[in-house]
Amino acid sequence: MATILLLHGPNLNQLGKRDAAQYGSLSLPALEALVKKEAEARGHTVKAFQSNHEGALIDWLQKESEGARGIIVNPGALTHYSYALHDALLDTKLPAVEVHLSDIISRESWRTVSVTAPACIAQISGKKEHGYIEALETLAPHLQ
Ligand code: DQA
């Protein structure tokens, strides 16, 4: 059994109230519950955290990565400019999958750039909550 870290960045606590056409209609607690259920069905546990603050996300990653085997991360807008989060992900030495609910490639040009994705083994974008299930499948071979 592996522990997977599920990390959400700024504004994702507002899921359910944000633009459903981009982000789907699930609230963050509902999304976290879905990922936990799917992970448990695969024999894994999930530790989830969300913050609107870059430093809090990095503090949590540094603390929790010790006992974990993989990461699913939706950095929100930090995706597009946080080299600090990039480095924190890299420093965990854990396989991380970056997930975006919306299709960041088909939106504003500034969203098409991810500075955090190079610290991840894969990026999944535009599949709403289904992207998180795909992330579990992507992590699976790395959790053995
Ligand atoms: C997002 C995409 C980001 O560009 C945006 O800033 C978000 C959510 C997504 O899940 O589609 O807050 O990461």
Describe this protein with a few key phrases.
single chain; 144 residues; alpha/beta; five-stranded parallel sheet; 34% helix; binds 1,3,4-trihydroxy-5-OXO-cyclohexanecarboxylic acid
Bound molecules: 1,3,4-trihydroxy-5-OXO-cyclohexanecarboxylic acid
How many structural domains? 1
| Fraction in beta strands | 15-25%
Q: What oligomeric assembly is this protein in? A: single chain
CATH class: Alpha Beta
Which residue ranges are poorly predicted, with pLDDT under 50 across at least 5 consecutive positions? none
Structural class: alpha/beta
CATH fold topology = Rossmann fold
Query: Any idea what the CATH superfamily is called?
Result: Dehydroquinase, class II
Helicity range of the residues? Answer: 25-40%
Q: Would you identify the CATH architecture?
A: 3-Layer(aba) Sandwich
**Helix and strand element order:** EHHEHEHEEH
Q: How do the strands line up in the largest sheet?
A: 2-1-3-4-5
- Total of DSSP H or I helical runs spanning 4+ residues: 5
Number of strands: 5
Radius of gyration (CA) equals 14 Å
